[in-house]
Write a structure and sequence with these properties.
Mean pLDDT: 91
Family: Belongs to the truncated hemoglobin family. Group I subfamily.
Strand content: under 5%
Number of strands: 0
Order of helices and strands: HHHHHHH
Number of helices: 7
Number of domains: 1
CATH architecture: Orthogonal Bundle
Low-confidence stretches: none
Pfam families: Bac_globin
CATH class: Mainly Alpha
CATH superfamily: Globins
InterPro entries: Globin-like_sf, Globin/Proto, Hemoglobin_trunc, Hemoglobin_trunc_I
Structural class: mainly alpha
Cofactor: heme
Keywords: Heme, Iron, Metal-binding, Oxygen transport, Transport
Helix content: 55-70%
Bound molecules: protoporphyrin IX containing FE
Amino acid sequence: MSTLYDKFGGEGTIAKVVDYFYELVLADDTVNTFFEHTDMEKQRQHQTKFISYALGGPNQYTGGAMSKVHQGMNLQPEHFDAIVKHLHAALAHFGVGEDDIHTALAKVESLRGDIIYK
Ligand code: HEM
């Protein structure tokens, strides 16, 4: 099945979206503190995985795995919402249409319950 990930050119385009998304996240005091002790390379990897997941690319996660990696962070709805907002902005910035953005956001929403309050 063709995914948004394929439609937007796989990793090449994704890398550009990631760079932009990364800037938005780093500039946002609501969420940037979570990445304070994360090295930059790992953080960039996180953003890449996040965007790839949203677009249906490789590395699709299970709720169980996501609940484990975010364990102890006690992420709140406002943190999750902030990340979703930046994802929306980053995709719109690169001309992704609202319908496709909606699909990507729905994908991310499906993991909310596994990621917050852990
Ligand atoms: C659908 C949503 C999300 C996905 C798919 C996702 C994916 C991941 C993955 C795969 C890891 C493991 C580390 C890695 O391999 O890069 C991770 C760690 C992490 N995530 Fe997320 N994440 C999501 C949402 C969030 C949110 C909303 C926040 C905070 C605002 C967050 C903050 C972190 C942090 C701080 C780490 C640890 C990084 C480190 O190793 O220091 N994540 N995430």
